[in-house]
Design a protein that fits this description.
Blueprint (H helix, E strand, L loop, with lengths): L3 E4 L3 H13 L3 E7 L6 H5 L2 E6 L10 H11 L3 E3 L9 H9 L3 E2 L4 H8 L1 H10 L7 E2 L6 H11 L3 E5 L8 E4 L2 H19 L4 E5 L5 E9 L5 E13 L2 E7 L6 H17 L4 E9 L5 E7 L6 H8 L3 H9 L16 E8 L1 E2 L5 E2 L2 E2 L2 E3 L9 E3 L2 E3 L8 E6 L6 E2 L6 E9 L2 H13 L2 E3 L5 H8 L2 H5 L6 H5 L11 H23 L15 E6 L2 E10 L2 E6 L4 E6 L7 E6 L2 E10 L2 E6 L2 E8 L1 H7 L13 E3 L4 E6 L6 E2 L4 E7 L2 E6 L4 E6 L6 E2 L4 E5 L1
Parallel strand pairs: 1-2, 1-4, 2-3, 4-5
Antiparallel strand pairs: 6-9, 7-8, 7-9, 10-11, 10-13, 11-12, 12-15, 13-14, 15-24, 16-17, 18-23, 19-25, 20-21, 22-24, 26-27, 26-33, 27-28, 28-29, 29-30, 30-31, 31-32, 32-33, 34-41, 35-37, 35-40, 36-39, 37-38, 39-41
């Protein structure tokens, strides 16, 4: 077996590979840019080599820099992770020339299947059903428009060498095709160093389902079930699960066998993923093959018991697969939520900064042991597992130079219903502060009726949140639970304040029993009767909620028992109350005496400043292009400028007709969130 491998990547996937390598007794080498000097993967590896400045195109995807690190450390093999150089045939060729093993497929397979245009042709030759599209390269935007009209709108404009949602746009008309072509080319060039673009028909109401394949260099190949990846935003997956709630066994078998046949057609040897688009009648069409480890591989590992990274290393070393297709058993259900540094309340725009608090839920393993998909012992109902793949830590920073993923939170349970329930609890218990993040949105999805029924398509987010995510409006029962909990917590905090030493004489502070709890526009007068075990919170209509908790002032996570049911709240202190986060909702809760509540109603509301005549930078980012000039009249929907952040280009458009009075930024400027880009008359 290899004695030392280099991981040509960063973040959570680098950490993930290091964990398996250590389990196998293999030493690891990390590479890092200036921005990642203190990164978690650098701390976890046995050695680390600096490879350049923060931008990926000056560090992580510079083949010469990575090869230098390999030579310096004497690494025998390289695991590329996903993204960066993972599907770059030139990198695989450089490794082969240097006598270093590539922990991935052969160069020929990468060239044939890694390039999406070539892979489509091979799939057609192998009689795999494919989506209609243009297989050839496209010279310019006008040719893109012509081809789009021939295929018929809507169309998908995609980077040939891309992945992970980068370099992808949906165009519904000629204008969208022109803009999408140029943005896709730019993103592809910046992210992959390859700006080739192709176009295919965009199938409406589709489900995105992919098959995990595993092949060795001895002609053996198997599939390890499927993953449902339909919940996406801008073609970037957000929630994945395995197996799919949509497929039946016959369709699963047909897709799996087709995926393996396609892999064998190119002498594939490693872990790989064949992606399909599936319609409502379970007709499936080949989209592409990712010749690498997928981001969402943990859910497959959780239902099969197969460590895919370990298998990739063993295959690269020349070993035969230790299992056949009949040995693969899908057991239970696994769900993965991708935690991103994106602010859902600001249109999911990227957020950067320091993680002032990062406390993921405790990772747990299911009781029985899974070995090669077979249970060693019983799998009793109620067992579950929590897994959190991450590349960050409390006090670390989220950089503007790389993608915004913070962690991949996974749960496994014997049934889908149980896996969802445990995911809800895990999300509620995930403490994260300092940056904008999508935890509230993920919680909302887990409670959404369409997701619970398993009826989602790739249009789920677009259809269910057409105006963006504005939080969750809690129902009356949930509001009362939070009101009772806040009242009980406030009473505990008040008691502590009465015990502060050094008080003035004759100024004793008394804790009353009557309070008014205000949240989400409603007031709840309550009376508290407390004992050593908890508090009985009485509402005016006679309802009584029993609240028990070991919460103490200052704790940012409150685990409570309300009338015998568990409740987890994220708690932040505000003047006169708390900021509470629960199940996708964020509410300010004020707890006042009856007299304070009476006076609070007389206080004027603070009016936000008028920014309606300004274009504000919606995220920290770099101005790529200014499309207008001072004095120019703009129309509703017109492109005003382009801002790049975390490898994605964002076109900012005019919300209404107006005239540009002042431009405060220029291409190349780095702006903070809410900085004024331009003003209007």
């Amino acid at each position: 077996m290899f004695k030392k491998i280099l991981i040509a990547n960063r973040g959570e996937i680098a950490c993930r590979v290091i964990k398996t390598a250590k389990k196998m007794g293999i030493k690891t080498v990390a590479i890092y840019s200036d921005a990642d000097k203190q990164a978690l993967h650098v701390q976890m590896a046995d050695e680390a080599v600096h490879i350049g400045p923060p931008p990926a195109n000056q560090s992580y995807i510079v083949i010469e820099n990575v090869m230098r690190a390999i030579k310096e450390t004497g690494a025998e093999a390289v695991h590329p992770g996903y993204g960066f150089l993972s599907e770059n045939s030139k990198f695989a060729e450089a490794l082969e020339a240097a006598g270093v093993a590539f922990i991935g497929p052969p160069v020929g397979a990468i060239e044939k299947m890694g390039d999406k245009i070539t892979s489509k042709k091979i799939a057609q030759e192998a009689k795999v059903s494919t989506v209609p599209g243009h297989m050839g390269l496209i010279a310019d935007a006008e040719e893109a428009v012509k081809i789009s009209n021939e295929i018929g709108y809507p169309v998908m404009i995609k980077a040939s060498a891309g992945g992970g949602g980068k370099g992808m746009r949906i165009a519904w008309d000629d204008a969208g095709a022109r803009e999408g072509f140029q943005s896709s080319k730019n993103e592809a060039a910046n992210s992959f160093g390859d700006d080739r673009i192709f176009i295919e028909k965009f199938v409406t109401q589709p489900r995105h389902i992919e098959i995990q394949v595993l092949c060795d260099s001895h002609g053996n190949g198997i599939y390890l079930g499927e993953r449902e990846c339909s919940i996406q935003r801008r073609q970037q997956k957000v929630v994945e699960e395995a197996p799919s709630p949509f497929l039946d066994e016959a369709t699963r078998k047909a897709m799996g066998e087709q995926a393996v046949a396609l892999a064998k057609a190119v002498d594939y040897a490693s872990a790989g993923t064949v992606e399909f688009i599936v319609d409502g009648d379970k007709n499936f069409y080949f989209l592409e093959m990712n010749t690498r480890l997928q981001v969402e591989h943990p859910v497959t590992e959780l239902i099969t018991g197969v460590d895919l990274v370990e298998q990739m290393i063993r295959v690269a070393y020349g070993e035969k697969l230790a299992m056949a297709q009949d040995d693969v058993k899908l057991t239970g259900w696994a769900i993965e939520n991708r935690l991103y540094a994106e602010d859902p309340y600001r249109g999911f725009l990227p957020s950067i900064g320091r993680l002032t608090r990062y406390r993921p839920p405790e990772e747990t393993a299911a009781g029985p042991l899974l070995i090669n998909g077979k249970w060693q012992g019983d799998a009793p109902e109620g067992d579950f597992a929590v897994r959190n793949d991450t590349g960050v830590y409390e006090g670390g920073e989220i950089s503007m130079y790389y993608d915004p993923m913070i962690a991949k939170l996974c749960t496994w349970a014997p049934t889908r219903e149980a896996a969802i329930a445990h995911m809800r609890d895990a999300l509620d218990g995930f403490e994260l502060e300092g940056i904008g993040h999508n935890l509230p949105f993920l919680s909302a999805v887990m409670d959404h009726d369409i997701f619970i029924k398993g009826e989602m398509t790739t249009a789920f987010i677009e259809e269910q949140y057409p105006d963006g995510f504005e939080g969750v409006a809690l129902d009356e029962a949930a509001l009362r639970k939070i009101a009772a909990s806040a009242a009980a917590m406030h009473r505990v905090a008040e008691i502590r304040r009465t015990r502060v030493s050094g008080r003035m004489d004759n100024h004793e502070r008394r804790v009353g029993a009557e309070w008014v709890v205000s949240l989400q526009g409603q007031d709840y007068p309550v009376t508290i009767a407390a004992d050593r075990e908890g508090s009985d919170v009485h509402f005016e209509d006679g309802t009584v909620l029993r609240v028990a908790s070991k919460w103490t002032p200052g704790d940012q996570l409150a685990r409570l028992d309300v009338n015998g049911e568990g409740l987890v709240l994220k708690v932040g202190k505000i003047s006169g109350g708390f900021r509470i986060r629960s199940r996708g909702a964020e509410v300010k809760v004020h707890v006042r005496t009856p007299r304070q509540a009476e006076l609070a109603k007389l206080m004027p509301e603070k009016v936000a400043p008028d920014t309606s005549k300004m274009l504000l930078c919606p995220m920290p980012g770099l101005i790529v292009k200014i499309n207008v000039e001072e004095g120019e009249e703009v129309q509703e929907g017109q492109a005003l400028c382009t801002v790049e952040a975390m490898k994605m280009e964002n076109i900012l458009r005019a919300e209404r007709k107006g005239t540009v009075s002042k431009i405060n930024a220029a291409p190349g400027d780095s702006l903070a969130v809410d900085e004024v880009i331009m003003e209007f008359e």
